[in-house]
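Q: Here's a chain of 293 amino acids. Please give me its 3D structure as tokens.
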Amino acid sequence: MTRKWINAGWMQQIIFTGPATVAFAIIVLLPFVMGMYYSFTDWNGVADTVSFVGFDNFKSAAQDEGFRQSFLFTAKLTAVAVVLTNVLAFLLALLLTQPIRMRGALRTIFFLPNVIGGLLLGFIWQFIFVKGFAAIGKATDWHLFKLPWLGDEQTSFWAIVIVTMWSGAGYLMVIYIAALINVPKELNEAAAIDGATAVQRLRHIIFPLIMPAVTICLFLALSWSFKAFDVILSLTKGGPFNSTQSVALNIYAEAFQNNRYGLGTAKAFIFFLIVAAITTIQVRLTKKREVEA
């Protein structure tokens, strides 16, 4: 009887998870393994012949100034965008868990940018920065709207940050709202009666109780920022003078424009290891805060 129950359990797992596992293996695992293999070759992505070159691609990637600059830009973008996007998302969630009018409609409006694809989102904001801001600047004579938002290294960086915040805050807001709703009201009320200020309640009650949501949101924001590609491609194409070229854009150019697929996959593998290490450290640090809470 026990053996039949175990066999039935295995059959259920195969039936329900088997197709998803096979699809994951074909779409994710197989390309990942093949990419690792091609990173040790000189394949150009087209030719039938593939030659093994060992660690030459990794040496070339380490010596590539453009790759290092793109990584520095990506690290800078990630550091700024992760913090600002999470702060904005939390403030929106805090606001939209209060008893205000049109709360449901506002939640929908702030979440809508996630429905729009990254390339389309970038082209919309490209029009706003180039045409919209120019028209506003001409009408109001405000210096802020007269800046070359996509034509200067500094302003183009902040333009990408703005679009990243606008597109990602709504998604993270939903996660923070779900966490805030589950915070017991009795704790807040008791703390308020004891004389705790709003800031003290936020720091000592709300933050510790929503740390699981913080872990998830930080992880998502980190992965989004590190993988930034479509928004940058449609906004600046990595310009001006490659000053806004992300690592993903650098890898794309190396593999599919320069036809050095082996070198591109080597860069991608290096980038994967770095991102995996950073996100693992982030999850472990925030998980410790969850345990303490």
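Q: Can you summarize the key feature?
A: Residues 64-292 form a domain with the MetI-like fold fold (CATH 1.10.3720.10).
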